[in-house]
């Protein structure tokens, strides 16, 4: 195992600055908060910026297929920034998970996804981990799909659903499905229940399982970077607030009990960066260590982001409990992310098999 | 000697070296000295001082090639303080003369080093130390008491911080020296510790004479030099390059795999969490090393050391619980003076007890959290009532 580079390259830092700049302009906390009151109007414009103007939808797609030919390392940096802004865009669900699932195909869909012309979602519950049992819908002899999948992320934004049915993976136009929005814990990645009544689809992958698992594995590996982005915001925002908030005649951030909690959080964030970078670098290098690296990053960063958001709220005091302050956006996303793509416990259970530590 | 090509094939360099110095027939010390002179001791050190001026990350290529050839190593565990703290400090702050005198026998292990920093009245608040050094011509005369000095009983030299100007505030009146442990004024007495053995010592310094040529850095600059030593210490403790499942986690998984009848779901859950944390800490150490590549570590080392201490303590506790009845037995309480410190050595009981020191030695975890909060996050400093007061006026 040669040592993977766990730092950020200059190109990656430039990419980060570009994404951060665009999000600062076009993804305000107020717009994300409005989504909890049913106003999703910010999503299409923001996605157009991310996918088309910045050209990020095709990061993981080879140039020959119409993409940017970048790697999981760059996608991870984008996710860090999207997490930092709790941006409500289907980058993870379409540009990472669905795109990876169809990456090996010559389907026209891949190029359309890369160009941001279409948006896809894999029709599995968001909680599905890369090694979990997969849902499979019924496929009739004449190739029609019937059945339902609950709690699908990215379906509301998608115009095509990738549906595992009868052993294959089918592309079904969104208008052929019944997509019912769910009132979700995290409205910045709102779920939907999806049903098909004899929908016609196009077979895109003959053997669905490896493709779906590859998509979910890439999703789980890179979700860790989103979680790092969430945690970084929580730490930075809390530190900044406690440097100015005064009580008892002193800056609150000067009390040692607070300093030590923030130091512990800073140490944990630093650890999370290493874990997430390692998973992304392993994925980018197609390293045999990907399954272990993913399980480690998913287990660690899933809990890190929740801890960071909980600390942010506690250490903001009353203002942290309000609708107006964005801290709650981070807690809701972090908690939903922790259950997404396999909960930390399921990643550790998988790890036990991978590294030979049976119970 | 010309500049070394950064792309140099180090395995080939080692091979050429081995062709001229057959480890099977060369005397061990001669072999190690020749290795130092060839720049293959620590490749990130400059040429002429055991290195080739290459990135530190490339050391592993050299070590692997020597290990594969069955060559003797410099027994690094015997000289942890010398290699991890004294050497980088001498490299950064020493004169050419000092580098030439000290570094080679330090690296080969001919001369073991210890660290005379802590005192009964100055632990976390190291800058408060009271050991006095008074100038006498070309020499300094040193008097005071040091404590918790690991390996002082094996050491030929010590890095020492002493007060040279009590009229200045505490940080400003310190100077850094190399102390010859064979000086008749040095009295080393064993201090028995929690494990039963005496790994550390009390060291009484009575009219010890130190030549001015053994001063590292300027008079009054001791705090700055000591800070560099401590930053290196934390990286040495927490930021080691190590393979997966090495160190304490290695001991625990070994026990887990060999004791299927002792496993419980509760222990399994804790083991897996700690496996993840140990792996993440290892990756963090790798990342820190990549970041430092060269140059002096800053406060980041504090973070890795806090994590290292916590995980070691939790892991060693878990092993005791896993072993059940066996966890109640201890190998041997006999007072011995160990040749080297191996925190993962001996038995589970020793590891459990020795790990308690991990959050105290090299800066306590509380003090390191202060450092992270203040120097990494920029939070307000702790109140320092004694900062600008002449040291001699402080209440002790
Ligand atoms: C195994 C071992 C080996 C050692 N080897 C060496 C050696 O070779 N050379 C050497 O010079 N020293 C050595 N030490 C000493 C070590 O560096 C000191 O013990 C350490 O710095 C703590 O100092 P102290 O023991 O005086 O504790 P104190 O400083 O008295 O601390 C007591 C408690 O107060 C806490 N505390 C102190 N200040 C603060 C603060 N500002 N904020 C919050 N909490 C605070 C500490 O965290 C600790 O919990 C060794 C120690 C151990 C355990």
From TrEMBL, chain A:
<dbReference type="InterPro" id="IPR009075">
    <property type="entry name" value="AcylCo_DH/oxidase_C"/>
</dbReference>
<dbReference type="GO" id="GO:0050660">
    <property type="term" value="F:flavin adenine dinucleotide binding"/>
</dbReference>
<dbReference type="Pfam" id="PF02771">
    <property type="entry name" value="Acyl-CoA_dh_N"/>
</dbReference>
<keyword id="KW-0560">Oxidoreductase</keyword>
<feature type="domain" description="Acyl-CoA dehydrogenase/oxidase N-terminal">
    <location>
        <begin position="10"/>
        <end position="98"/>
    </location>
</feature>
<dbReference type="InterPro" id="IPR009100">
    <property type="entry name" value="AcylCoA_DH/oxidase_NM_dom_sf"/>
</dbReference>
<dbReference type="Pfam" id="PF00441">
    <property type="entry name" value="Acyl-CoA_dh_1"/>
</dbReference>
<protein>
    <submittedName>
        <fullName>Acyl-CoA dehydrogenase</fullName>
    </submittedName>
</protein>
<dbReference type="InterPro" id="IPR036250">
    <property type="entry name" value="AcylCo_DH-like_C"/>
</dbReference>
<dbReference type="InterPro" id="IPR037069">
    <property type="entry name" value="AcylCoA_DH/ox_N_sf"/>
</dbReference>
<dbReference type="GO" id="GO:0003995">
    <property type="term" value="F:acyl-CoA dehydrogenase activity"/>
</dbReference>
<comment type="similarity">
    <text>Belongs to the acyl-CoA dehydrogenase family.</text>
</comment>
<dbReference type="InterPro" id="IPR013786">
    <property type="entry name" value="AcylCoA_DH/ox_N"/>
</dbReference>
<keyword id="KW-0285">Flavoprotein</keyword>
<keyword id="KW-0274">FAD</keyword>
<feature type="domain" description="Acyl-CoA dehydrogenase/oxidase C-terminal">
    <location>
        <begin position="213"/>
        <end position="353"/>
    </location>
</feature>
Automatic annotation (TrEMBL), chain B:
<keyword id="KW-0560">Oxidoreductase</keyword>
<keyword id="KW-0274">FAD</keyword>
<dbReference type="GO" id="GO:0050660">
    <property type="term" value="F:flavin adenine dinucleotide binding"/>
</dbReference>
<protein>
    <submittedName>
        <fullName>Acyl-CoA dehydrogenase</fullName>
    </submittedName>
</protein>
<feature type="domain" description="Acyl-CoA dehydrogenase/oxidase C-terminal">
    <location>
        <begin position="220"/>
        <end position="377"/>
    </location>
</feature>
<dbReference type="InterPro" id="IPR052161">
    <property type="entry name" value="Mycobact_Acyl-CoA_DH"/>
</dbReference>
<dbReference type="InterPro" id="IPR009075">
    <property type="entry name" value="AcylCo_DH/oxidase_C"/>
</dbReference>
<feature type="domain" description="Acyl-CoA oxidase/dehydrogenase middle">
    <location>
        <begin position="114"/>
        <end position="208"/>
    </location>
</feature>
<dbReference type="InterPro" id="IPR037069">
    <property type="entry name" value="AcylCoA_DH/ox_N_sf"/>
</dbReference>
<comment type="similarity">
    <text>Belongs to the acyl-CoA dehydrogenase family.</text>
</comment>
<dbReference type="Pfam" id="PF00441">
    <property type="entry name" value="Acyl-CoA_dh_1"/>
</dbReference>
<dbReference type="InterPro" id="IPR046373">
    <property type="entry name" value="Acyl-CoA_Oxase/DH_mid-dom_sf"/>
</dbReference>
<dbReference type="InterPro" id="IPR013786">
    <property type="entry name" value="AcylCoA_DH/ox_N"/>
</dbReference>
<dbReference type="InterPro" id="IPR036250">
    <property type="entry name" value="AcylCo_DH-like_C"/>
</dbReference>
<keyword id="KW-0285">Flavoprotein</keyword>
<dbReference type="Pfam" id="PF02770">
    <property type="entry name" value="Acyl-CoA_dh_M"/>
</dbReference>
<feature type="domain" description="Acyl-CoA dehydrogenase/oxidase N-terminal">
    <location>
        <begin position="15"/>
        <end position="110"/>
    </location>
</feature>
<dbReference type="GO" id="GO:0016627">
    <property type="term" value="F:oxidoreductase activity, acting on the CH-CH group of donors"/>
</dbReference>
<dbReference type="GO" id="GO:0005886">
    <property type="term" value="C:plasma membrane"/>
</dbReference>
<dbReference type="Pfam" id="PF02771">
    <property type="entry name" value="Acyl-CoA_dh_N"/>
</dbReference>
<dbReference type="InterPro" id="IPR006091">
    <property type="entry name" value="Acyl-CoA_Oxase/DH_mid-dom"/>
</dbReference>
<dbReference type="InterPro" id="IPR009100">
    <property type="entry name" value="AcylCoA_DH/oxidase_NM_dom_sf"/>
</dbReference>
């Amino acid at each position: 195992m040669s040592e993977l580079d766990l730092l950020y390259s200059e190109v990656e830092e430039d990419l980060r600055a570009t994404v951060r700049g665009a999000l600062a302009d076009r993804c305000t906390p107020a717009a994300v908060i409005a989504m909890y009151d049913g106003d999703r109007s910010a999503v299409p414009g923001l996605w157009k910026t991310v996918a088309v103007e910045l050209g990020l939808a095709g990061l993981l797609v080879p140039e020959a297929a119409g993409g940017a030919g970048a790697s999981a390392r760059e996608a991870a940096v984008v996710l860090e920034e999207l997490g930092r802004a709790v941006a409500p865009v289907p980058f993870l669900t379409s540009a990472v998970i669905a795109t990876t699932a169809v990456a090996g195909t010559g389907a026209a869909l891949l190029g359309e996804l890369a160009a941001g012309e279409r948006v896809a979602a894999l029709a599995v519950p968001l909680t599905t981990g890369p090694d979990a049992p997969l849902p499979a819908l019924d496929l009739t002899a004449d190739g029609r799909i019937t059945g339902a999948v609950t709690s699908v992320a990215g379906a509301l934004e998608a115009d095509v659903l990738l549906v595992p049915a009868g052993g294959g993976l089918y592309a079904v136009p969104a208008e052929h499905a019944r997509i019912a929005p769910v009132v979700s814990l995290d409205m910045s990645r709102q779920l939907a229940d999806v049903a098909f009544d004899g929908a016609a689809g196009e077979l895109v992958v003959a053997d669905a399982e490896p493709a779906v698992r590859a998509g979910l594995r890439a999703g789980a590996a890179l979700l860790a970077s989103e979680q790092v982005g969430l945690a970084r915001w929580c730490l930075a925002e809390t530190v900044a607030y406690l440097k100015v908030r005064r009580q008892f005649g002193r800056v609150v951030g000067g009390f040692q009990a607070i300093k030590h909690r923030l130091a512990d959080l800073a140490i944990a964030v630093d650890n999370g960066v290493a874990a997430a970078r390692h998973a992304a670098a392993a994925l980018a290098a197609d390293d045999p260590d990907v399954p272990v690296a993913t399980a480690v990053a998913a287990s660690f960063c899933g809990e890190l982001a929740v801890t960071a958001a909980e600390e942010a709220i506690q250490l903001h005091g009353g203002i942290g409990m309000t609708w107006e302050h964005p801290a709650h956006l981070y807690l809701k996303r972090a908690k939903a992310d922790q259950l997404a793509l396999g909960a930390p416990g399921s990643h550790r259970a998988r790890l036990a098999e991978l590294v030979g530590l049976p119970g | 000697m010309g500049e070394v090509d950064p792309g140099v094939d180090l395995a080939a360099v080692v091979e050429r070296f081995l062709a001229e110095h057959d480890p099977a027939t060369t005397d061990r010390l001669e072999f190690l000295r020749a290795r130092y002179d060839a720049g293959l001791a620590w490749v990130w050190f400059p040429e002429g001082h055991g290195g080739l001026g290459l990135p530190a990350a490339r050391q592993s290529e050299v070590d692997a090639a020597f290990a594969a050839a069955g060559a003797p190593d410099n027994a690094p565990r015997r000289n942890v303080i010398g290699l991890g703290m004294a050497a980088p400090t001498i490299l950064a702050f020493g004169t050419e003369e000092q580098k030439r005198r000290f570094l080679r026998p330090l690296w080969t292990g001919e001369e073991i080093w210890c660290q005379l920093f802590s005192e009964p009245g100055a632990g976390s608040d190291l800058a408060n130390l009271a050991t006095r050094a008074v100038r006498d011509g070309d020499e300094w005369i040193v008097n005071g008491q040091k404590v918790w000095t690991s390996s002082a009983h094996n050491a030929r030299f010590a890095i020492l911080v002493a007060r040279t100007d009590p009229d200045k505030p505490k940080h400003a009146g310190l100077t850094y020296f190399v102390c010859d442990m064979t000086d008749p004024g040095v009295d080393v007495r064993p201090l028995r510790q929690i494990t039963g053995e005496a790994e550390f010592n009390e060291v009484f310094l009575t009219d010890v004479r130190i030549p001015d040529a053994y001063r590292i850095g300027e008079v009054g600059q001791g705090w700055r030099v000591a800070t560099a030593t401590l930053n290196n210490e934390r990286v040495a403790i927490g930021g080691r390059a190590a393979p997966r499942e090495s160190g304490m986690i290695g001991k625990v998984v070994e026990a887990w795999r060999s004791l299927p009848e002792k496993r419980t779901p509760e222990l399994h859950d804790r083991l897996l969490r700690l496996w993840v944390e140990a792996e993440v800490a290892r990756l963090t150490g790798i990342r820190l090393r990549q970041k430092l590549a060269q140059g002096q570590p800053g406060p980041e080392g504090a973070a890795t050391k806090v994590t290292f201490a916590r995980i070691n303590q939790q892991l060693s506790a878990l092993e005791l619980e896993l072993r059940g009845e066996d966890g109640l037995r201890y190998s041997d309480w006999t007072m011995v003076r160990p040749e080297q410190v191996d925190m993962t050595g001996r038995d589970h009981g020793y590891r459990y007890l020795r790990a308690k020191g991990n959050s105290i030695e090299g800066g306590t975890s509380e003090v390191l959290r202060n450092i992270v909060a203040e120097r990494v996050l920029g939070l307000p400093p702790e109140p320092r009532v004694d900062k600008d007061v002449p040291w001699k006026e402080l209440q002790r």
